[in-house]
Every structure is written in C-alpha cells, then in structure tokens.
C-alpha cells in the first residue's frame, strides 16, 4: 500500500518518508571516492616534498618548500569563495562535475610539469578545483539524507578523508622505497589524480538536488527526482505536490552577514580557521619532522601511515556521538582533546611515545573535522548552503595558507612553542562552537534564513 498525501509537503518531509536506502548509500560511495581522491591531492605535498627537493635542489624547509606546500591551499581559498556561490546559482551537480574534472586534469599536469614554476602553477589550479568540490559535495549529500541519520551520514562522508590519507601514505611509502625520490614524487602526484576519474564517471548519474530545483521554481523536476530516489530505494512512497520554498535561488555572499546568519557565520569562521591552522600546521610537516629526527624515508612514511589509520577510530566515535549527544558537544570535545594531545606532544621524548601521542592527536582532530562537516551545512538554509560552506571552507584554506609557513619556522626550531600555539587555537575553536548556541541534532534542514535564525 502506498503512503499518499493529499496536500503539498516540504522536501524534508518527502525525504524523511522515503527514508535511508540504496540511493543514499550509493551517493555516499560516489561522494566518498571523490573525497578520498581530494584528500590524496591535498595531503600529497608533504609526502612528495623530498622528491622535489632532490630534483630541483632546494632546502627541505626553505622558501621553495613552503611555496610548494602552500600552493594548493592558496588555490583552495579562492576556489571555495568562487565555487560555493556558483553552486547556489547554477546547481550542485554542474559544479561538482566541473571541479572534479579540473582537479584530475591539473593533478596530472603537475606530475608532468618540467619546471618548478609550472609545478607551483598546476598545484594552485588543482587547489582551485578542489576548493569547489569539498564544500559543494557536502551541501549536495546533506540535502538528500533523512533527518534522523543525517549527522552520522555526513561524518561517514568525512571518514573517506582517512582512506585518502591512508592511500597516499601507503603509495608514498611504496614508491619512495622503490624508486629514486626525483622519480617517485611524479608517480605519487600522477596516481593520486586518477581516483577522481572513477568518481567523475560514476557521478554523471547522480541527479541535481531537489532542494536546489525547487528554489529555481522547478518543483515538477524536484518531485520527479524524489520519485526516482524512492523507486531506487524500493520505497512505496507517493510523492505528491511539493510546497513552494520560501527562499530564493542564488543568494549573494553578503547574505551570510545579514542578522539571521551573521552570528553563526562569524563563529563558524573562527572554528574552521582554528582547526585548519592547527591540523595542517602539524600534519603537513610531520613527515619532515620525523625525517629531521633521523628516520629514513621508509620509516617516515610508515609512521605517517600509522597516524592515518588512527583517524578511523576518531571518525567512528564522532559518527556515534553526533547523533547520541549532539553536534556541538561532540565537536567542542574533540577540539579540547586535540589541544590536550598537542600539549602532551611537547612533554614526550621517545619515538614510540611521540607516535602514540600523535595517533591520539590524529584521532581527535579528524573526529573534530567529521563533526564540523556534519554541523556546518545544517546551520545554513538551502538558498545559501553551498555559499555558506564555501565561505567557511575558504576560512579553513586561509588558515592552511599560513599553517605551512608557521610550521616550517616553528616545528624545526621551537617545537614546544609551535604545539602550544596550535593547542591554543584548538581551545579557541572549541569556545566558538559552544557560543554558536544552536544544536541541529534531530532537526530538519531549514529552507530559508528566517527558519535558520529561529533554530
């Protein structure tokens, strides 16, 4: 028997009635593959750096090294600001297909670049593409998942970052112990770009977000998409007339600073900036730090692989806690544990102890990222969800531009000072989360800024 409604309903209601099924799991697999590929692209700089040092003959911690590590982050900063609003204007699907394609193209171009200047250019362009993929992917998937499991599902998507980290660490370990460094780095960069091709091919079949379609006045198309989702899930749900959304499509970036959203935009910006500065400041330079401790490249990449594996428990715990205790306390708690682990790192001396504390830090920070990516899209209305995600993502990229420079100076000369600074940023990020005030666990996604301000 079908569950038919005789009056119009919201898209939230329709998605909740359809429920979780094959479509959402397939969407998670597709988005997760892209997410893992982007993680490989973002994090490969620290792994590939020894190869560029060998080929282009510059110091491991000098200006050229910092430029290489920072190039993709600079591109991601501009990409997040550019692609987020574009996705709210022309659609999530188009932007995702475009950015994934460009990411693969420029990633392969980096691997083949004959000069260091071109390496930097193509790394910047790769980052510009990825800067659109990451926030828009989250906006799209959040808009397809039922309310009661949305937080856990979004953490599952973020957990693919760990798989990408494991993949690039394992790939680097294998290639740098099998080939000369000046050849190994090109294979690492080239192979890291290839998973995006698979994700691009599969992603062609994912329809546009019904929320975006409804805001564009295409309610019949939105209803047809929802019917396809229900059929794919095997759900006997009849999708009737959809209520017209009260928002409007293509809101400008300035909408994030109107009274209804300004508080959460400011506090989320602080949180994203603080977490990113500490995370990239530490983990971008950890391979170099291990190398300066006297470890050979094989042991460096082995240790980094262990830290990548440590991320998985962090994600699992975050996926449980965001639905059990809420997004806000989970995020703040992981940030505070990250601050504690950073402080402990300054006290340990042996290689084993530093590896254990690093693993705790890795689990805590990636748990925080999972909770943050689940929380943020729920705090913005449909009309500006991609724009909001793009803005806060750009704040993270702004921090990641500074992080390699700070890390290069401090992690090689004043480790306790560096980690104390990073720990303080994690504490500030936790306080910002607590001051947001809103908790989105169990709440439907808001369609307008007015609804968002009332939660």
General description of the model:
The protein is mainly alpha-helical and 455 residues long. It has a single domain, classed as Growth Hormone, Chain: A, CATH 1.20.1250.20. 76% of the residues lie in helices and 0% in strands. It has 18 helices and no strands. The protein is globular and about 70 Å long. It is a multi-pass membrane protein. GO terms for molecular function: transmembrane transporter activity. Pfam families: Sugar_tr (PF00083). Keywords: Membrane, Transmembrane, Transmembrane helix, Transport.
Features:
single chain, 455 residues, mainly alpha, Growth Hormone, Chain: A, 0% strand
Query: Which regions have little confidence, pLDDT < 50, spanning 5+ residues?
Result: 1-6
Number of strand segments: 0
What name does the CATH topology carry?
Growth Hormone, Chain: A
Instruction: Describe the sheet with the most strands.
Output: none
Order of helices and strands: HHHHHHHHHHHHHHHHHH
| Average pLDDT reading | 83
Globally, the shape reads: globular
User: What is the CATH H-level superfamily?
Assistant: MFS general substrate transporter like domains
């Amino acid at each position: 028997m079908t569950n038919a409604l005789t009056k119009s309903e919201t898209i939230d209601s329709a998605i909740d009635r359809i429920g979780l099924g094959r479509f959402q799991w397939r969407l998670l697999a597709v988005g997760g593959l892209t997410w893992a590929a982007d993680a490989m692209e973002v994090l490969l700089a620290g792994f590939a750096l020894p190869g560029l040092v060998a080929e282009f003959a510059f110091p491991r911690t000098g200006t050229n090294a910092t430029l290489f590590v920072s190039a993709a982050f600079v591109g991601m900063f501009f990409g997040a600001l550019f692609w987020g609003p574009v996705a709210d204007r022309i659609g999530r699907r188009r932007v995702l297909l475009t950015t994934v394609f460009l990411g693969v193209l420029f990633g392969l171009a980096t691997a083949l670049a004959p000069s260091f200047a071109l390496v930097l250019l193509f790394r910047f362009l790769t980052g510009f593409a990825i800067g659109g993929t990451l926030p828009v992917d989250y906006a799209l998937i959040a808009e397809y998942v039922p309310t009661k499991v949305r937080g856990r599902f979004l953490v599952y998507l973020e957990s693919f970052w760990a798989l990408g980290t494991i993949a690039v660490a394992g790939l680097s370990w294998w290639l740098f112990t099998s080939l000369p460094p000046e050849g190994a780095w090109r294979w690492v960069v080239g192979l890291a770009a290839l998973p995006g091709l698979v994700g691009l091919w599969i992603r062609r079949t994912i329809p546009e977000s019904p929320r975006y379609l409804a805001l564009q006045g295409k309610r019949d198309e939105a209803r047809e998409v929802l019917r396809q989702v229900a059929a794919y899930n095997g759900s006997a749900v009849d999708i009737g007339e959809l209520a017209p959304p009260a928002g409007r499509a293509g809101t400008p970036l300035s909408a994030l600073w109107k009274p209804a959203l300004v508080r959460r935009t400011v506090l989320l910006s602080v949180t994203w900036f603080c977490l990113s500065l500490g995370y990239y400041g530490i983990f971008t330079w950890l391979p170099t730090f291990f190398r300066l401790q006297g470890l050979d490249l094989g042991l460096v990449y082995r240790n980094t692989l262990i830290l990548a594996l440590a991320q998985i428990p962090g994600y699992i715990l975050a996926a449980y806690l965001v639905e059990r205790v809420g997004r806000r306390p989970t995020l703040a708690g992981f940030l505070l544990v990250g601050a504690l682990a950073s402080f402990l790192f300054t006290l340990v001396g042996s290689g084993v102890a530093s590896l254990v504390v690093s693993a705790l830090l890795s689990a805590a920070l990636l748990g925080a990222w999972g909770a943050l990516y689940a929380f943020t899209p729920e705090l913005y209305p449909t009309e500006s969800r991609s724009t909001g995600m793009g803005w806060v993502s750009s704040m993270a990229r702004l921090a990641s531009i500074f992080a390699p420079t700070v890390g290069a100076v401090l992690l090689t000369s004043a480790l306790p000072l560096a980690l104390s600074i990073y720990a303080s940023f994690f504490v500030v990020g936790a306080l910002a989360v607590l001051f947001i005030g809103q908790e989105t666990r169990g709440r439907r996604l808001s369609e307008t800024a007015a609804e968002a301000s009332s939660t």
